[in-house]
Amino acid sequence: MHRNTITLRGKIVFDPVDKTKKHEAQGSWKKVAMIFFYGDLCEYYNWFIERRYNLPLVKPLRRAHVSFINDRGSDTNGKWEEVKRKWDGKKIDVTLDISPRTNATHWWLIVPEESRGEIHDIRAELGLGRPNFGLHMSIGYAKDTYDKDKLDTNGMTAKRMNEAHSKYIHELIIKGRIE
Hints:
Order of helices and strands: EHEHEHEEEHEEEH
Radius of gyration: 18 Å
Mean pLDDT: 86
Number of strands: 9
Distance between the termini: 20 Å
Helix content: 25-40%
Strand content: 25-35%
């Protein structure tokens, strides 16, 4: 077990309410299940990243959660409703490594490999292998903000260059200059 982890109790939700245009557009063929956490964990990590790196992040629309099924319905071996009845609304413990990770734009906490067993078991009941993206809880993402009153020839000028700043932080992390 990692020494810098926290274990949270979350609630499994199959077929969560559509909150995005992408989810709505893909809803006819895609199956989704998530583990939702109560509390303000995303808000805390947003605050932490902003204080540590002077980098405000856009919080996840669905708040603190781990998406563990985000696959084609045709890949779920016809057992979606059966597995949904078994697991929907159940509580599950999820361990997170508390060290934030980034790909230069998005920030997240990982579910350590040795803590993924029960979640992978639920996927296996549907005939699904490991997810394309490793199991993680999104913290947020960097997005430039604009001042609409100050227009240049392209329309607007960025007020805060958060994306470039996030990429710079990522480069410093890779080079081992900061943690």
